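Chapter review: from sequence to fold.
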Amino acid sequence: MESILSGSSRIAFGENGRLLFRDFLAGQRFSSIFVLTDSNTRVHCLPVFGAQFPEAGKWTILEIPAGEAHKNITTCLTLWQQLSGKGADRQSLLVNLGGGVVTDLGGFVASTYQRGIAFVNIPTTLLSMVDASVGGKTGVDLGLLKNQIGVIQDPELVLIDSGYLNTLEERQLRSGFAEMLKHGLILEKPYWDALKNTTNFRSLQEHIHTSVILKNNVVLEDPRESGLRKILNFGHTLGHAIESFYLGKGEGLSLLHGEAIAAGMVMESYLSVQHAGLSTSECDEIKSVMLRFFPRVPFPEADREAILELLRFDKKNSAGSVRFALLQRIGKACTHQEVTRESLRGAFEYYAD
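The token string follows.
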């Protein structure tokens, strides 16, 4: 697959990506190289990485605990101290090997350590390949609030190797698949139509490439998220609130990102009927497809109210008003849509029915 230029970085795939990474390393004179993993990717992905790049045996491995609960400034502080203690300087390189938590957090750590060192992202989950790999967003959560602290900074290179998908359980694959479905819904109906009949989540290489292209086209037009890029938030206003709410319930009860976003997309499709002109038939189609791939999440009344309260912290808010990216039709999205509290409660009812 051909590599893709994204801002100041290049997104490369498979063997071609591995060759570009070797050329990149040969063309630079890094004083030291660090590899950031979490406790899962160190066990399952680092051996694969080490087999592909034997020279990595001489690099310094950094490890953080796995899970969204550790995507916070405390983890960053630990890593900054480790980098400093191990002699990292402005000519060092940080390689982020992991899912979205590792690439988001690692990118933020690199972008702020000594006012910025070079970093490379190697996403190892489907979610991070089709979402976190594109657009240069880095950051951490603030308490239960998703991605409240961060900067936009492109990595030097993104290497997408679908071989890492073999290390994932199907639940994790489905989580990433939700973002791919979103790309079809907001940008390209034929892509949605192709994805909705998927039966094998381990044979998505061509679709991964398509998702990266679709998201990258949006990011290139609006790199700072001042306009068009906000369509990528479809499903995420309610979805992030749902994810944050369940994160507060503890690791055993939390939802994966894609599971929360799938529920959010069903609800925001309902809001799209109420406020953006989406047809009822397309709304029902979206609901049917999402519930085929993702089990329905129960939302008791008290939970619904708590989730709605979290909406006031959403980064897209303006003058205290919650704004949504909604669908005008499958393949066409709009942004900056204000919805009523009554519609929000109706969205939960629609999802539950």
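Two observations follow directly from the output. The two ends are 43 Å apart (CA to CA). Residues 153 and 199 are 36 Å apart (CA to CA).
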